[in-house]
Records
---
Amino acid sequence: MDALVLGLVLGGLYALLAQSFVLTFITTKTLNFAVGEFVALGAFVVLAVAGWSWLPDVGKLAVGVLVAAVVGAAAYRFLVVPFMTEGEHDVRWLLSTVALSFVMLNLITNVEGPSPQRSETARLSGAVDVLGAGVSKQQLLIAVLAVVVTVLLVVASKKTSAGLVMRAVSQDPETTSLMGVSPRLVGMVTYAVAMGIAALTGTLYAATVGASPVMGAPLLVASIAVAVVGGLSSLWGPLLGGALYGVLSEVTSYEFGAIWGETAGLLLVIVVLVWRPQGLLGRRTEVKL
Amino acid sequence: MGKLRSMHKALGVAAATALALTGCGGGADAGGATGSAGEDGVITVKLGVVGPKTGPASLYYEYMDQTFETFSDDFEEKYDVRFEVISEDDQASPEETARAVSRLINEKGVHALMGPPLSGNSLQVADVVQKSQLPWLLPGPNADEIINYDIQPNWAFMTNFTNQQIMAVLGERLWANGQKVGIVYSADGFGQSNLQHLKSWAEENGHEVTAEETIQPGASDANAIIQRFKDSGVDSVFMGITQGADTATVTRAIEQAGFEPKTIMTTGTILTNYKDVADPSQWEKIQIVDPRNFLEGGDSEVLAAVREATGEAPAIPTNNISTYAILDIYAQAVQEVGDATDFEAVRQAIEDIETVHIGDSLTIENPFSEDDHVLYDDDPAKWHTYGFDENFELVHLGTAAECLQKSC
């Protein structure tokens, strides 16, 4: 039972970050491989404003999210859009986002240094008992937030005009542009929201492990795996993927040792890719050639 | 035209990336370093230093840098030996380490090599450096395997303790009163070496390791590791972990699981990066052993001088001291030989060194012999046991031998 509970909580962390990948993929069919550095960016921005005693923690979080959102939108405009002009098979954005990842990593390291720095913003100390398992309050907060963010995104995409536009651009950007909607603008907004979520994850995670330039890297593989398992085209996907990945890796670690935990999670990805390449909740899209 | 513009932009991104990656690489050439005495009577040595100048592991270069900055003038004044440092950035990667070492030896013609600081990377280049027949100064690594005494003359000298030594000092403490021992170790050269020597000591002394678990750098939790320890009945934990931040992940999991082992021991690596990501309740039961006295005498003088000269905390306190020791040893040897380019004579002078100075008030006599190129030995009476107060300040609990008797 301990492994189940802790796996679900751990899956929540991965699921929250995985939403960054899912959001950009749904709308722009691209993934930002610099998400790990946006995790760190958010954490360090919040650390920078931590001394603003007049601003409550929620406000500091908002500053971190906002800065990452602006940088994310700019990254889409200047490092993704120019590298996807040759149609669906143009994947140069993949290289440009990887390059962005290296540049951001070096910049953050040069400015902040390599060592983890303590972050007290939005930090919950201690653990609570959940069905007999000791769960860190901070990790529980992140897991709950993963559910809340997912529900909000689903509701926004289905019930608001912005969500309608996002879905329209996702399905047929050319036709929507003929109707006066700018797919580029929608992409920028999506990237802003996605990188804001990455920054939010980073800030809350930094309260546990400290803010460091490389803090996002260990989360990246698991988050991509979670997004793929759940389905890159489904907003519910990260929750399901996170739950499965987290529980499987935690139970495997309990039974066979920590070294096998992550391996089991990645094996799950392979199984899902073979059985349902679009992910468990993803929709299969047919490309007319 | 659009394609051309895209290509230009792609090249721009690639160039920016390359610049960002290489921005701090390379080192200055040491034009006047002949290795013999100049008109002023000072011998200028071309010292190749390899380590991660950039990237997340850059603390492992910074401690060498801090020690040079603090003590270079002192060594020149004391031994008439000036260090001209030619540095190479290995970014802590094995491939870059091999390239950096090769450049320093073959292209830069250094008179001695210091680093790399990480055990795994040192192991990777050990054969190459040994064949180059240059004095190899190792203040950082702990893995015994780096020095193969079957090859003589041997060129490597270590001034940190080794993993075999720490296990010899700690073994009885860990297994005291029939305790069951579990080890959690980093998935790197340092961690693997810790595991190997703990198991060897246990086997030689009729014990067994009850649980062994590895932790990946940056792991988001260690809950499963601790649960397995609990389930196995482990009541004595050794953490052989390279980064303090990963140690914090383990102690956080210990607290979270309500796990209360009787003994939790680790190494001086906890002094780096741990305090900032852990809470007092997580470190109150942790103890470390180390051959250095961080609180008084020569070791503490070195740390105080680094703090004063650089205005920063020593990057890795244990290794700041080790770097001071190896520079003292090498400078003495060069002074005695009078020519840093007579590599064999310098190597022999190091091996025969009579007194190593650490700070103003600590000396270690005759540390080396043909088959012992390690500064410290494994006598528990000479090692110190430390705990931590609520501010993570070290508290001296006694020597390792005393703590074995009275269970500190």
---
Amino acid sequence: MPYNICMVSDFFYPNAGGVESHLYHLSQRLIQRGHKVIIITHAYGGRTGVRCLTNGLKVYHVPMIVVFQAASPPTLYGFFPIFRSIVLRERISIVHGHQAFSSMCHEAIIHARTMGLKTCFTDHSLFGFSDPSSIVMNKFLKFTLSDIDHVVCVSHTSKENTVLRAALTPQNVSVIPNAVIASRFKPDPSMQDPNVTTIVVISRQTYRKGMDLLVAVVPRICRKYSKVRFVIGGDGPKRIDLEQMREKHLLHDRVEFLGSIKAHEVRNTLVRGQIFLNTSLTEAFCIGIVEAACAGLLVVSTKVGGVPEVLPRHMILFAKPEEDDLVEALDRAIEMIQRKEVQPAKFNDELKEMYSWVNVAERTEKVYDAISQTRDPPLIERLRSYYGCGVFVGKLFCIMIALDYLFWVYLEWILPRDEIEPAPKFPYKKFKKMCQRADKEDELGPANVNSI
Amino acid sequence: MTFRCYAHADNTREYIMTSDAKRINSYDFMLIFICLGLVYALGTTKTCYAVVSLLILFRIAFKLLFMVTEETILVIRDVGVQVKTVYLGGRSSSRFIDRSKITDIIINEAITMMHIRVYMAIIVEGEDRMVVVFQHLLPRLNVLLQAYHGARSIIFNEKDNSDVPLEFS
């Protein structure tokens, strides 16, 4: 049965990252399976309004202020009127929120529950339990997740983490990993420099990604081996530390900085190296290492979070997240490469079977099937579950939900359902036929229409 | 709102949107209440009469000048499009766009604080702002679609698809 699904997250293109591409690819596959998908995100610069992407994937860029790293501030009820209009005009039945950092996603889930829609949430990252920001975040998560139909996590480690943080029943949490398009990361050994071993690092340069470890490791490796080079891509607050390290140890000919890399250039950067280094301190599911392995690189990674679940043993070398252990692991990796003990070029074929978006979409669809069967709890039941959140916050949450409900009733009165025009459906089958015809027409040339 | 279509000839079509909105709306009632309040507060003095009459005059002038009663799009083959707005006071402003300057005619969606609105616009070559048709009255999609298909059939010689129903889900 086809569903009308609404994905909500603060993070979407043109911002680049794992959540963004996850949203895009998952939506595309769901559309291909016959569902209708729309995405709600906030405005990026001048990009406000409604946009249509490939295959009629509609994106609503709702105007909102951005406070910190592409996340919008919580507006509490400010988002409700427009959200209600969108949901009603698109005849949405399932609201799927992404990423715990996104306040928009939390708000959407709460409002959707008030409106009696089915909700689902995907968590893309891990959190601690001790530092102040995590404690606040966890309370928030507990708030939204106390009344949700289903939660999806990207790895088993992440599931464990989420279940603990939000005090959920594990039955309501399922694991659906990310995927890569293996054909986009074809290895190309001719791009490698045969004389030296190149180590590639691509990540956001932030504390969470372990850039301090990288600063310590790079000079030690360069001192030890004369024929090793580093290629470092990405940008962020820690970039200045890395550049200082390069100045201090005079490694200008050995360490290359590429700055921020666009999504389509990642593969071309990856294939230049033989080893991929990931120094993350926390990671729910590292899509970067899967892409690297797909592109034919041996992966060296810190053993944190969901990383051990991601790749088969022969593709990856683990280290503890500390300097000495990481150097040791890199030693082993360089030795393996120089002695040609592994054939990373063959990794692509193996991973092609393991990670595919079609599979992810199928599994997500099963989640949707399950939640559309569930019974809607009455308001009093919802209030009870929020009340259980804590001694003081429980009452606060109850007040917020009650107000949300009243606001909804007010909206129903001021802007009745019948006055909201339904949006016409994107003629996906017609579009597909047109694409096929166009493909046939330029069969001689590269079929670049609808190649995604 | 009433919507009318005139086919003056084979090559000319005119779509007229007329507003049915009441001439006196809730804002006017609000103004009357404010005036009554003022009379109550200030008493029947000269200043009070002056303030009240000024307020009412301003309101009437504002309505005559800026309240839109009719919007028109006139499409002529090979010549172009004329967009016209008529105000309550009888003032009208119109804009003509030459056929050679028309890049495209589109229907798009816009987001406001409360609503998603559908609008029809003409993309003019060399200008970074579109000309929005029926900008003040903003009719519903089924009305817009008629004007859209009609205008396109004349300007771009397309087949008139307005009888093909849209799919809703």
---
Amino acid sequence: MGSANIVKQLKLLPQKVFAIILFLLIWEIAPRTGLVDPVFLPPASVVFSALYDLVITGVLFKHTSISLQRAFGGFAIAALTAIPLGFIVGWFKTFEKYMDPLLQTMRQLPILALFPVFILFFGIGEVSKLAIIALACFWSIFLNTVSGVLNVDPLLIKSARSMGIPHTGMFRKVVLPAAAPAIFTGLRYAGTVSLIVLVAAEMIGANAGLGFFVINSEAKFAIPDMYAAIVALTILGVVINYLLIGVERSVSKWKEEIVRS
Amino acid sequence: MTKIKAENIKKTFKIRTNGNSRNNGNSSNELLALGGVNLAINKGEFISIVGPSGCGKSTFLDLVGGLSKPNEGNIYIDGKPVEGPGLDRGIVFQQYALFPWRTALENVEFGLESQNIPKNERRGTAQKYLTLVGLNSFEDRYPYELSGGMKQRVAIARALAFDPDILLMDEPFGALDAQTREILQRELLHIWEETHKTILFITHSIDEAVFLSDKVAIMTARPGVIKKMEDIPIARNDRFEDDIRSSQDFVKSRYKLWELLKEEVVRAQQISGNAVSNFSKWETAK
């Protein structure tokens, strides 16, 4: 990281923003020229000014913070359960063989289909939303942890054993760092999933949050507000993804090829 | 003084039975890898084991390293039976086995961490051994930033750092190109002179074995036993001379060993059934 790097980044800037600016231009022009109905798709400038108003009045902040609490809460619950369980299942290979068919089947279950079940058990409150987000995030973290642990190079274990390290040390010094990149891939994917499920859950049963705000604006026919919230969700997704990539990079800097997304 | 002693070591492996193994009438699904290995290595000696591929030479090294247990027989180090891995033995593997998330220096420190050595001292020791293998300016590099030869140097430094009496080397130069291989062979001889380790070296290259060792043990095809132990009549100092490989003693030793090994190679090919691939491997190794 030096000034040379910054110059390089600046040179890449036109390339990076070109498509986005083009997209915004089309979004601005198409409704204005009557190519699409401006009532259903207001021009970008209208949407962004609605977004500005929502920021100024604090409405957006209120809904965003509620949404973030849910997404982060569910994500945290998932990470705290999936990583330890993934280590257990990955480490005991026989157990993994027995569990795998069930896990592979469960993974294919469309999570949102379970939302009514969660409402049945936990009611319409926060718990059911946290639970469904947690469950949705769980799979990608869990399965990536399992495969990370399963794929630890046996030679590294052998090599560590030859240097007389105890079982606890083996876990901390070999298995954990070797599996870390896989775990972070799972976490990053879970970050994306948490937002998707959050929005869906908030649309089905909530009275606050960005998902609720999107569907509620549509119901009230406040179309610019609806789009503003969608834009806010997109920005949120981008920020979360970049944060997780940043963390992932810092723990996998020893990898030859860093996963880019 | 005997440093390592192996008495009648036998080792069997369970073979995974696949569908058609029932048809060939062979009810036994155990494979005898080592059929009674006897070997004694004196303190400070450099001994190589040469054998055809699949003869169990790496298996034997694992047993000496305490990484697996023999089905029969015992291995003694300084008269005490081996019961598991220990810091009295350092192992160098063909595929380096460096921890990719650790820098060169941190890799060398690994074996020191399980002893309660203060961090500063650990660092100092690791630096000393990286310098010994000529990599002092690469201590902050990750393994992916190092060439094969450098990786193996780090692995050697790592095995030396906790100062074991014995160095066990499992085809350590097998994955390297010819030039790097020769350079590292010379360096290993220097290190051996400096550190006075007892070295057990596994290779399938006769040339390498003759160049490095005091004695070379020829192993038979599976089930592996020691067929013969040959003394190499070349003084340590003479080995650094440029034309040593064409000297009479060297050529003679190489020829004698190849005569002993040839029929084992043929037998190993018959056993393994894929003569073609093994032969080509041998052609290049020889």
